[in-house]
């Protein structure tokens, strides 16, 4: 009687192309976010409501760059809404960790870099919806005035600026357990927006507060997002935006590599 022996070659396992990235996984992530009522409020309702809450205040028609003050505020509100939405998408990893889903993914051939890329793409889509909601509200409101190409370019630049906060959301999601992530990110981003000149221009602050604001994450991206309108982008604002983006991405990658336990 002969005995059939087989050997297992660990290198024979086929690695999926593109590190496991596929449109099915991306579609599932998007559907999951769109079914979340809290996300819809952050994405579509809150940013538009903030824009409307400012109303047609005195000075809205004053010139600002290629447009007026209303356009300046519209771009700022779009950035805040998209940043909040992108951070919420990124912070979903906290809930996934609490449910053990991240540990399940580590057993699959899905590359960690691809996992972060999928999160970034979802954040971009959701952030784009927030920007679209703000711009549509501003258009219907009829107060904002700027050339069409500036309007489009501002929206596109703002969209890419939100990647910074998607990375921040992922980083916080790996540091803070469960749903506590957004309880920290929500008030934190609001405070950073006030301090970084999103809600209130920095020239309205004292010199001491203004010099602190130059180091905050919101300052650089807000200047970048509004640069197509204002035609002004200080070099230190660009360094600020790139520096914080690199820091949050590095932090998210570091925490993900250290994540081995179920929270």
TrEMBL record:
Keywords: Antibiotic resistance, Membrane, Transmembrane, Transmembrane helix. Its main location: membrane. GO terms for biological process: response to antibiotic. Residues 26-226 form the ABC-2 type transporter transmembrane domain. GO terms for molecular function: ABC-type transporter activity. GO terms for cellular component: ATP-binding cassette (ABC) transporter complex. It is found in: Membrane. The chain crosses the membrane at residues 39-57, 69-95, 116-138, 150-172, 184-202, 233-254. It comes from the Bacteria. Coiled coil: none annotated. It is a multi-pass membrane protein. Signal peptide: none annotated. This is ABC transporter permease. It comes from Nocardioides pocheonensis.
């Amino acid at each position: 009687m002969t005995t059939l022996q087989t050997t297992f070659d660990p290198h024979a396992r086929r690695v999926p192309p593109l590190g496991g990235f596929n449109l099915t996984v991306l579609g599932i992530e998007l559907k999951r976010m769109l079914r979340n009522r809290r996300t819809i409020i952050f994405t579509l309702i809150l940013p538009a409501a903030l824009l409307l809450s400012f109303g047609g205040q005195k000075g809205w028609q004053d010139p600002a760059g290629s447009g007026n003050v209303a356009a300046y505020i519209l771009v700022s509100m779009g950035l805040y809404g998209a940043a909040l939405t992108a951070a919420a998408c990124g912070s979903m990893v906290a809930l996934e960790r609490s449910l053990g889903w991240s540990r399940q993914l580590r057993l699959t051939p899905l590359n960690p870099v691809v996992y972060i890329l999928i999160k970034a793409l979802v954040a971009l889509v959701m952030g784009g919806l927030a920007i679209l909601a703000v711009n549509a509200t501003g258009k219907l409101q009829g107060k904002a005035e700027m050339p069409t190409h500036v309007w489009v370019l501002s929206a596109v630049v703002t969209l890419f600026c939100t990647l910074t906060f998607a990375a921040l959301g992922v980083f916080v999601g790996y540091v803070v357990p469960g749903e506590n992530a957004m309880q920290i990110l929500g008030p934190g981003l609001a405070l950073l927006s006030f301090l970084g000149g999103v809600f209130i221009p920095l020239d309205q602050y004292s010199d001491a507060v203004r010099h602190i604001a130059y180091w905050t994450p919101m300052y650089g991206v807000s200047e970048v997002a509004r640069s197509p309108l204002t035609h002004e982008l200080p070099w230190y604002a660009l360094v600020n935006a790139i520096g914080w983006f690199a820091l949050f991405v590095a932090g998210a990658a570091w925490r993900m590599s250290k994540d081995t336990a179920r929270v």
